[in-house]
Structures are given as C-alpha cells and as structure tokens.
Amino acid sequence: MVRIIDAEIMAALMKNQVFSCFVFYGVLLVMKMYIIAIITGQMRLRKKAFANPEDTLRHGGLQYHREDPYVERCRRAHINDIENILPFLFLGAIYSMTGPGLAVARLHFLIFFLARVLHSVAYLFALQAPTRSLAYIVAQIPCISMALQILMAVWQYA
Fold this sequence. Notes:
Elements: H1 7-15, H2 17-47, H3 53-57, H4 69-96, H5 102-124, H6 131-154
Helix pairs in contact: 2-4, 2-5, 4-5, 4-6, 5-6
C-alpha cells in the first residue's frame, strides 16, 4: 500500500523548526481565509444579495438576485486572499526546505501574516488609502525574498 506522505517523512518535516513555524502561520492564514468567506456569506444573507438565482428562491425571491456594494467588497477581499495566500503557501513550504535560519524565516512568515490581516481589515472596513495598498506591498516583500532565495538555492539545477 502506497501512502501519500509516509509517517517518517512527516515526522522529519515536523522536526524542522522552520517548517513547523511555516505550518503555524500557514494554518492561521487559511483560517483567516475561511473567516473572510464566512463573513461574505453572512453579508449576502444580511443584505439579501445573492449571486445565484436558485439561492434567492429560498430567501424571498428573484428580486434578491443582485449585487450589494458591501457584499462585493467582502468578496473582493476573499478573492485577494486567494490570489496572495496560495502563492505564499507554496513559496513558504519550499523556502522552509532550503535551510534558512529560524529567526529570519519566522520574520518572513510573521510579516506576511500581519500584513495580510491588516489588508483584510482595511478592505472590510474601507480604511483610508493607502492603508490597504501599503499592507499589500509589505506582504509582497517576504514573498519576493523567499522566491529569490529559492531560486538561488536551485539555480544550478535549471
């Protein structure tokens, strides 16, 4: 029987402090994405603004097949999370395997996490510009750093 991830390999990964740190922040980010998705769904219910006609039939009729500006704001925040957190999860996992120091790696993960939380807060509460843009830029810095370090670690194999 072939297992997708052998127990010994998983145990070795979890002993890697950098990888464990990455997993911690990665799981927090995925949970944040779920929270934004739940907020979006709750706003659809509260504002009676449904994207699909079949959903409106359960909640008052086709007149609620419409867009609402705040629901769209929540939806855009969720889409932005998907566009940014998924690449971070890939980069962070690979970066963790390149042997970075724990303190530097933790700083990369923490900066990304805090910037993404600020980005979501700025999006959902329509904070004054350039708060959201600055949070986005700050979150990109550790991603670019990790990507460059990964490329430097593997360039000789290209």
